[in-house]
């Protein structure tokens, strides 16, 4: 922390001009101080600070703070927080900052909130952090309100109080907290403690989505796709799904796959669409596997490779090594770099085919040229098993394949 920010303007005329408007009484209601006396004493503190005599600064501020001067209480609290001129003591810092806040000295709010949140987040358990979140929330700190709102909504480490949870979330959401906005979207979607209100849910999800919260972007996509709380708008649904999917939001790939299956997703690459339909297949979306099988019949390399992977691993489709090999071969011939590497590995190990390091090198070479991670290293390994003549033959075959498929 910049120490000149702690004491800077201690005797500033602009600050002191407002002293007469503050309550200059201590907690025990001592008589008000003479503003001129306060100004003179503050000037003394500033002089001591310029001389780097921080202990003297603390001593002067202590005298004023004990007599109820909020500016002095504030500055002294900061000094105790960092241990300048006094031994660091955060509890004492809190005490002085609270006393300054008690006189409506608003600059004390920020360091108090910072301390409260630090203590809440560093607590050994969530429950131990709750009292500190409560203190920060009492100062209208959105971060603390959002956390506590979720706690009270779900009964996490507090006695469940849905109404209070919603009130806290609403306060944080209105202050712009994205998590609270998204959680309110859930509240109104599910009818947790309130009547189901899709329009209100959409409003809060959209606010969070526009702020960049990924899970809210996924929700907005679904609302636009289904017309829940808003008009159906498939271009907007796709836009929000794509935003969320780029951040790996769960479920968005399957939603995009579902749109592809229904023929409303255009202008995207085959690899992207295939991946999304595969996600839909994993999510057991009706028609996903049939879509892949139909696309495979057209010779689409990406789809063939995806079907090969499903048959190879037993994911989605029953494991079938023969069908996996067939689809890998077709995909590799159609130009799928991933399938080419898969074929290279099969030829190198003799998995379903006669072991052939020349063929393994050819396919690894093609995959490496396409930039498949690891393919170049595997090509180097395979080359070690080849004579100079066989290596030259493998390189020539790869060159011939690329020439034959240059326009594909």
TrEMBL record:
Classification via Pfam families: Sel1 (PF08238)
Segments traversing the membrane: none
Top-rank taxon: Bacteria
Gene3D superfamilies xref list: Tetratricopeptide repeat domain
Protein name: TPR repeat
Species for this entry: Maricaulis salignorans
Source species taxonomy: Bacteria, Pseudomonadati, Pseudomonadota, Alphaproteobacteria, Maricaulales
């Amino acid at each position: 922390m910049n120490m000149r920010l702690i004491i800077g303007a201690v005797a500033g005329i602009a600050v002191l001009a407002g002293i007469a408007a503050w309550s200059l009484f201590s907690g025990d209601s001592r008589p008000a101080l003479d503003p001129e006396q306060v100004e003179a004493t503050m000037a003394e503190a500033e002089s001591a600070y310029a001389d780097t005599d921080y202990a003297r600064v603390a001593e002067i501020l202590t005298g004023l703070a004990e007599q109820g001067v909020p500016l002095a209480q504030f500055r002294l609290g900061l000094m105790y927080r960092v241990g300048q001129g006094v031994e660091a003591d955060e509890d004492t810092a809190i005490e002085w900052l609270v006393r300054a806040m008690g006189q409506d000295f608003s600059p004390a709010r920020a360091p108090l909130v910072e301390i409260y949140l630090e203590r809440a987040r560093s607590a050994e358990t969530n429950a131990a952090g709750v009292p500190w979140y409560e203190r920060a929330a009492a100062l209208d700190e959105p971060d603390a309100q959002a956390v506590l709102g979720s706690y009270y909504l779900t009964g996490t480490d507090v006695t469940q109080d849905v109404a209070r949870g919603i009130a806290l979330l609403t306060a944080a959401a209105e202050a712009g907290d994205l998590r609270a906005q998204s959680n309110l979207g859930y509240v109104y979607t599910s009818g947790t403690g309130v009547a189901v209100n899709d329009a209100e849910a959409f409003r809060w999800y959209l606010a969070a989505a526009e702020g960049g919260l990924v899970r809210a972007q996924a929700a907005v996509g679904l609302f636009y796709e289904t017309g829940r709380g808003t008009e159906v708008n498939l271009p907007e649904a796709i836009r929000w799904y794509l935003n969320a999917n780029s951040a790996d939001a769960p479920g968005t790939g399957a939603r995009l796959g579902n749109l592809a299956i229904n023929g409303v997703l255009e202008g995207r690459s085959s690899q992207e669409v295939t991946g999304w339909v595969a996600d839909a297949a994993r999510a057991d979306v009706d028609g996903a596997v049939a879509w892949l099988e139909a696309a495979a019949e057209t010779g689409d390399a990406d789809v063939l490779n995806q079907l090969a992977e499903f048959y190879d691993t037993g994911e989605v489709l029953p494991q079938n090594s023969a069908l996996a090999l067939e689809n890998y071969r077709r995909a590799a011939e159609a130009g799928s770099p991933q399938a080419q590497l898969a074929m290279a590995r099969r030829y190198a190990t003799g998995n379903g085919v006669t072991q052939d390091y020349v063929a393994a090198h050819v396919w690894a070479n093609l995959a490496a040229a396409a930039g498949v991670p690891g393919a170049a290293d595997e090509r180097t390994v395979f080359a070690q098993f080849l004579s100079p003549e066989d290596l030259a033959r493998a390189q020539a075959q790869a060159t011939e394949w690329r020439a034959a498929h240059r326009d594909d």
